[in-house]
Design goal:
Layout lengths: L2 H23 L3 H17 L4 H21 L3 H5 L3 H9 L7 H23 L1
C-alpha cells in the first residue's frame, strides 16, 4: 500500500470518527448516554475492520438521531435486553472481529460433533 493510500485511509477513518462523535454530542443527554454505552460494547465485540466499524457507528448515530427526533423512548429502541439489541445490530455488519470467528468455530464444532454422535447410534 502506498503512503498516500495509507494516509488517506487513516485520515478518512479519523474524519469519519470525528463526524460521528460530533453527531452523538448533539443528541439529548439520555440518548447520548445510551449511545456511549453501546459504543463501548461495540469497541470490544464489533467489527475489527475500520470501514465496517465506521459504517456501523454512523448507522447507530442515524438510529438514535431519528429516534430522538421522533421522541422514541430508549427502551423502545433497545428493548428489554440491550445486549440482544446490540448482538442483532452487529449481525448487519462484516464479520471481522475475533469474537465472531470464534462463535462460528464453536457452532461448526458442535454441528460436527452432533453429526458424529448421530452416526454412532
Amino acid at each position: 500500500m502506498s503512503i498516500s493510500k495509507f494516509t488517506s485511509k487513516v485520515i478518512g477513518d479519523k474524519r469519519r470518527w470525528r463526524q460521528y462523535k460530533a453527531r452523538t454530542r448533539q443528541l439529548p443527554e439520555n440518548y447520548r448516554t445510551a449511545v456511549d454505552a453501546i459504543e463501548r460494547y461495540l469497541m470490544y465485540f464489533g467489527p475489527a475492520d475500520g470501514d465496517s466499524a465506521a459504517s456501523m457507528l454512523e448507522d447507530l448515530a442515524d438510529l438514535f438521531e431519528q429516534s430522538a427526533a421522533d421522541g422514541t423512548p430508549i427502551r423502545e429502541i433497545v428493548g428489554e435486553d440491550p445486549v440482544d439489541f446490540v448482538e442483532a445490530f452487529l449481525q448487519n455488519y462484516d464479520k471481522g472481529g475475533w469474537v465472531t470467528r470464534e462463535r462460528e468455530k464453536l457452532t461448526n464444532a458442535i454441528k460436527r460433533a452432533e453429526g458424529e454422535e448421530g452416526s454412532r447410534s
